[in-house]
Amino acid sequence: MSAVAAESTLYDCRDAFAETIDALAEADERVVVVCNDSIASSKLGGFAAKFPERLVNVGIAEQVMVGIAAGLANGGRRPFVAGASCFLTARALEQIKVDLAYTNADVKLCAMSPGVAYGEFGPTHHSIEDIAWLRAIDNLVAIVPADPLETAQALRAAAEYSGPVFVRVSRMGVPVVYDADYQFRIGHAMRLADGDDVTLIANGTMVSRALEASALLAADGVGARVVSMPTVKPLDLDEISAAAEETGAIVAVEEHSVHGGLGGAIAEAVVAQRPVPMRILGFPGFAPTGSAEWLLEHFGLTGPGIRDAAIELLERKGP
Q1: DSSP string computed for 285-304
Q2: CA-wise closest residue to 203 among 124, 141, 263, 289
Q3: How many CB atoms are located within 10 Å of the residue 125 CB?
Q4: pLDDT digits (tens, 9 = 90+) for 204-261
Q5: Model confidence over 180-201: pLDDT tens digits?
Q6: Residue 70 located in a structural domain
Q7: Distance between CA atoms of 255 and 170, rounded to whole angstroms?
Q8: In DSSP terms, which residues pair with 253 in a beta bridge?
Q9: Number of domains the chain is built from
Q10: Which one-letter DSSP state was computed for residue 101?
Q11: What is the DSSP letter of 311?
Q12: 181 lies in a domain?
């Protein structure tokens, strides 16, 4: 278990994205970035200044963006696609499926500002279905990092992986949850807190909130294990099996729809391996317009909200 850093400062993971992309491009002249008029929102200003000939801005044309990236990969380049997750996944889903996954194109999709980060713009800009859509597509890795360190490491792991990879890059401020010795690996979860009564499995912006819930539950006399599950596809089935076997109850928490995302993937694994009581916390349907913090609180995606869900689950689980 990697110790959790005591850190209250909130960080924008897009900064880690920008720094990592610059470093990757400096080390490998094949690295290029394709974006959809999102230089500012993807924090690509530095990249544009350093590598103007390696930045392709297609304008607001997401299908074209992904298609161009596939072509660049076929030509020997190493393309990273950067754009708001809501538009990248919804508008270019066919290209992601056919041009990338079906052909195993070596393209990395960097989904900026996912979940409800664009809260005030409402349901058209919420990206709470992206993981569900992409999880159904074969041959595609899907990663949801929790903090800046994991974001940077996930991008580097994606660069080393041969094939298409989707990485969510959080806009919402998150604290550091990993110590400097943490090493991200595709398909591997990380146990951040121990407990024998219930397991909280989270990713992305919800990991720090799951840790808060674990501390609240400890004050209630409940031992809540916290597992960070950054890779939704492929899942760490061993860690899920251990959670079911050793704690007998699982709460999945994600900044995503309750349908088809991390919680759905865990439920599929649990049913196949060892059925135990579960709760899936996320958005039950279209989320309304409002700030990201208000939306998360409204739907119980907070430390106290996760704690309450765990208590309810334990009551259902029984002795």
Answers
A1: S---SS-HHHHHHHTT-SHH
A2: 263
A3: 17
A4: 999 999 999 999 999 999 999 999 999 999 999 999 999 999 999 999 999 999 999 9
A5: 999 999 999 999 999 999 999 9
A6: yes
A7: 10
A8: 202, 281
A9: 2
A10: I
A11: H
A12: no
